[in-house]
Amino acid sequence: MEWKLTDDRPIWMQLSEQMARRIVAGQYPPGSKLPPVRELAADAGVNPNTMQRALAQLESDGLAVSNRTAGRAVTEDAAAIESVRRTMARRITKEFLSAIADLGYTREDALALLKEEEDTHG
Amino acid sequence: MEWKLTDDRPIWMQLSEQMARRIVAGQYPPGSKLPPVRELAADAGVNPNTMQRALAQLESDGLAVSNRTAGRAVTEDAAAIESVRRTMARRITKEFLSAIADLGYTREDALALLKEEEDTHG
DNA sequence: GTTATTGTATTAGGCACTTAGTACAATAAT
DNA sequence: ATTATTGTACTAAGTGCCTAATACAATAAC
């Protein structure tokens, strides 16, 4: 998954969320070392300060730990990662159902929309 | 639907989206008159300038028209409204599927999440 | 032991968003 | 005809985000 950044939300928040997705999706396994701040920043095309803030948030969420000069690593607590993954999935699902309902669609409509989208894009 | 505002995105953008949802959901029927800017602003608890910007966006989207001193009204083009509704629904659905996939879930998982959420919250 | 790397902190500046306050022209309401 | 309403425009100030540039301490790498 490449970096997807929009200008309608703070970049550091988007970076933090996308790093979180990479971690819970297994791209960065539990205990594995994360790339240096400067490298991640260059890869995402943002200022190191911005990536620094994103990673700080990642630590607040319990997904990463900082070892100062030894770099940053994903937490070794696999259960915590899985917990975050489920929480994120539930939140996304809830928001989807809420958004669809706000448009005046029923749950049958929601399922139909899902099927249509899956049929369209493989 | 009450106003749901967060501080991680421009308020005028959220206001515009929520007004759009109300229109496509039928809360403000085609051709009906919209409340004055100042009233909407007071109801949402924001500055009139901010609501003004949101409504200007709504006009750019073709969902509302301004009649100067006669106030603002929803477009009478019901087909245009329905088109926006479908477009919004498709975008929301696509983003849901993409977000779920980013977390490493399959489509069967997605359906299971939906069922679980529906069972939980009515 | 020396050097390079890493996380972190600091300062400064530009920019967009939001609020507050004010004002104006056109027209609906009386 | 007078008044109130409505959309719109403008300026000023405060705030947060982002970038840029720099610096430092600790430690890994050599």
Q: In a few lines, what is going on in this structure?
A:
The structure is a homodimer of 122-residue chains. With 122 residues, chain A is mainly α.
Q: Can you give a write-up of this model?
A:
The first copy, chain A, is mostly helical and 122 residues long. The first copy, chain A, folds into two domains: 11-76, Arc Repressor Mutant, subunit A; 79-121. Chain A has helices spanning 11-24, 37-44, 48-60, 78-102, 107-120, and strands at 33-34, 64-66, 72-74. In chain A, strand 2 and strand 3 (72-74) form a beta hairpin. In chain A, helix 2 packs across helix 3. The radius of gyration of chain A is 17 Å and the shape is elongated. The two termini of chain A are 18 Å apart. The mean pLDDT of chain A is 95. The A-B interface holds A 1, 8-10, 13, 21, 24-26, 85, 88-90, 92-94, 96-97, 99-100, 102-105, 107, 109-111, 113-114, 116-118, 121 and B 1, 8-10, 13, 21, 24-26, 85, 88-90, 92-94, 96-97, 99-100, 102-105, 107, 109-111, 113-114, 116-118, 121. The structure holds a DNA duplex (30 and 30 nucleotides).
The CATH homologous superfamily of the largest domain in chain A is termed Winged helix-like DNA-binding domain superfamily/Winged helix DNA-binding domain
CATH class of the largest domain in chain A reads Mainly Alpha
CATH architecture type of the largest domain in chain A = Orthogonal Bundle
Helix-strand category of chain A: mainly alpha
